[in-house]
Specification:
The protein has helices spanning 40-48, 70-76, 93-105, 115-135, 151-165, 184-195, 209-215, 233-238, 240-248, 256-260, 268-274, and strands at residues 2-11, 14-24, 29-33, 55-60, 63-64, 78-80, 169-173, 201-205, 218-223, 226-231. The protein has 276 residues and is α/β, with parallel strands linked by helices. Bound molecules: adenosine-5'-triphosphate (ATP) and magnesium ion (MG).
Length: 276
């Protein structure tokens, strides 16, 4: 159970996240929506420890995480997609995934310095890493240095590394942004598969409302850093506050294609990234 209590951060005079109290239960995918600049990414940064809160608290299974940085929170079970800049760009895709799997098991599986166990552990780690790469359709890229990957593959690798950590809480911030038509479905399928695991808590920031409608068990809406709606998807989407938020950020350059878009989008950027 992940919980934020009155979580707040100020940047100078600007309150980017304003006293957000929310509980996220295992087995639930919560979509976090809201216009550009609403504070969604900042909220994730506060939960994952990348940013220090001005006030309020983050709790996991009743335990306060406030004293922990990002590494401590990762060990506690919070999974935020890696920034690939933090990885080893000259090591291969497989080596990076293997390191992530290994780091998540450090301390859990240590069996001492026996050559046999080191070798069999290594083999098992490799098998598990290949399995994860298969799930993100990147098996054939396993030997390439991470630095050489195109953007879509880098984003898929970020998700692979997140899975390698096997966290109890998954935080996805626009996971398919910038991905091509053949890559986005791979990530969405992975999230669908994760959803079947009742022990996982999933938080998804997503502008594409068709994705939100399909995947969300619950939607929360942030607006100017404040939680303004929270509930069952159909009701939240129909609520006045969401309709207003949508209207408040209508695309600047409305086109025939936007008008033909079957679902309202929460931001101009979502419309652009949906465009071919
Ligand atoms: N480190 C920072 N210093 C100052 N202001 C910041 C910082 N990080 C975020 N902000 C401000 O906080 C507000 C919320 O930004 P945030 O990136 O969280 O929005 P968002 O909901 O993720 O938007 P988007 O949908 O565009 O990704 C914005 O006004 C942003 O400029
Ligand atoms: Mg953001």
């Amino acid at each position: 159970m992940l919980e934020t209590r009155e979580l707040t951060v100020r940047f100078g005079g600007h309150v980017a996240v304003n006293a957000v109290s929310c509980v996220f239960a295992p087995g639930t995918l919560t979509a976090i929506v809201g216009p550009n600049g609403a504070g969604k990414t900042t909220y994730f940064n506060l939960v994952s420890g990348q940013l220090r809160a001005t006030s309020g608290d983050v709790l996991l299974n009743g335990r306060s995480l406030s004293g922990l940085g990002t590494a401590g929170r990762t060990r506690a079970g919070l999974g935020r997609a890696f920034q690939l800049t933090n990885l080893f760009p000259n090591l291969s895709v497989l080596e990076n995934v293997r390191l992530a799997v290994q780091s998540s098991r450090a301390g859990r599986h240590w069996r001492g310095f026996h050559l046999w166990s080191i070798w069999s552990d290594h083999r098992e780690l490799t098998q598990h890493s290949l399995q994860i790469l298969d799930q993100v359709s990147m098996l054939e890229k396993q030997a390439l240095p991470v630095a050489s990957l195109p953007h879509g593959d880098q984003r898929k690798l970020e998700v692979a590394l997140l899975m390698a950590l096997d966290p109890s809480v998954y935080m996805f911030d626009e996971p398919t942004a910038g991905m091509g038509a053949d890559e986005a479905p791979v990530i969405l399928n992975l999230i669908r598969a994760l959803k079947r695991d009742p022990s996982k808590t999933i938080l998804l920031v997503e502008h594409k409302m068709d994705v939100v409608r399909e995947l969300a068990d619950r939607i929360i809406v942030l607006h100017n850093g404040t939680l303004v709606a929270d509930g069952e998807p159909a009701a939240v989407i129909a609520s006045a506050v969401v309709q207003e938020a949508y209207l408040g950020v209508a695309p600047r350059t409305a086109s025939a294609q936007d008008a033909a878009h079957p679902h309202p989008s929460l931001s101009p950027r979502a419309v652009r990234s949906d465009a071919p």
